[in-house]
Amino acid sequence: MKSGNINYAAIAATFFLLMISSQAQLSSTFYDSTCPNALSTIRTSIRQAVSRERRMAASLIRLHFHDCFVQGCDASILLDDAPGITSEKTAAPNNRSARGYEVIDAAKTAVENVCPGVVSCADILAVAARDASAAVGGPSWTVKLGRRDSTTATRALAESNLPSFRDTLEVLIGTFSGKGLNERDMVALSGAHTIGQAQCGQFRERIYSNGTDIDAGFASTRQRQCPTSGRDDSLAPLDLVTPNSFDNNYYKNLIQRKGLLESDQVLFSGGSTDTIVTEYSNNPRTFSSDFGAAMIKMGDIEPLTGQNGIIRRICSAIN
């Protein structure tokens, strides 16, 4: 093409690519015309579940987190075993600990009754996490929508991609960085441990370690419900002070060496995240704001949009 001439074909191609790109972006108004009552329907369902069991708030936030870290926020964690699908539900980080599947199913059923085949299970997971946080006094945020559901799930990826309660600070930083989340995002998201509980098998080594990074009185208290062997499923609150309220006591606990899991306490152990923990312990508003921002950022991890993926009618199975 000579200088000064207009290449209309190139302009058209560029416009087409931009149009596809814009269509693939998540948007808070995605269902405004196709299912205007979607968000209120989900919120009602989640509030009912949390009112029945306050611990469910933590479980729903965790379910969204464990979904997004394995092949993106695509509801793969909800799929049961099927030909070609190895369910993530039985992966070590999820097995007998991830919960709330029936709450998501109930929300999905409620939404299907309002507008069948429109709202994805992946979006319901994202909205449920926000509504669960708000239901226990935690922050709320504007959820971006438009994700579609995967047709695959991989137990092996769940085994390798999800953080472990035994991870060092360096490993945790690397894991979150691999998902586009920085240290501040990681520390903020870890604050979800201000609610919820952990199983004895996950913190036994820590409370019997006699290490310098754990308060002796705290360890003794936790040992009462978690013997040196057996009772692996016995539960203890991640935040001993206000276990049912979404606040910043989690960070105050870390400064006092009262983090229940190894992966909690490493956030305040002389490393690069100490200053962030201190900041959040002193400023609950900053924590609340950063938590919401980090949840939005996490919800952007590799979503399926446009023509990719499907809208599952039942969250646990392919249509």
Could you name the key traits of this structure?
single chain; 319 residues; 2% strand
How would you portray this structure in words?
The active site is at residue 66. Ca(2+) 1 binds at residues 67, 70, 72, 74, 76, 88. Its cofactor is Ca(2+); heme b. Disulfide bonds join 35-115, 68-73, 121-315, 200-226. Residues 25-319 form the Plant heme peroxidase family profile domain. By secondary structure, the chain is an all-alpha fold. It is built from 14 helices and two strands. It has helices at residues 8-23, 38-52, 56-68, 101-114, 121-135, 155-161, 169-177, 183-190, 200-207, 216-223, 249-255, 262-265, 274-282, 284-298, and strands spanning 197-199, 235-237. The chain has a two-stranded antiparallel sheet with strand order 1-2. Helix 2 (38-52) runs antiparallel to helix 4 and helix 3 runs antiparallel to helix 5 (121-135). The relative contact order is 0.17. Mean pLDDT is 92; it is low at 8-23.
Helix segment tally = 14
Percent of residues in beta strands? under 5%
What kind of sheet is the major sheet?
A: 2 strands, antiparallel
Helix coverage percent of residues? 40-55%
Number of DSSP strand runs: 2
Give the radius of gyration.
21 Å
What is the straight-line distance between the termini?
A: 49 Å
- Widest β-sheet, arrangement of strands: 1-2
The geometry reads as globular
Secondary structural class: mainly alpha
Which regions have little confidence, pLDDT < 50, spanning 5+ residues? 8-23
* Average residue-wise pLDDT: 92
Order of helices and strands: HHHHHHHHEHHEHHHH
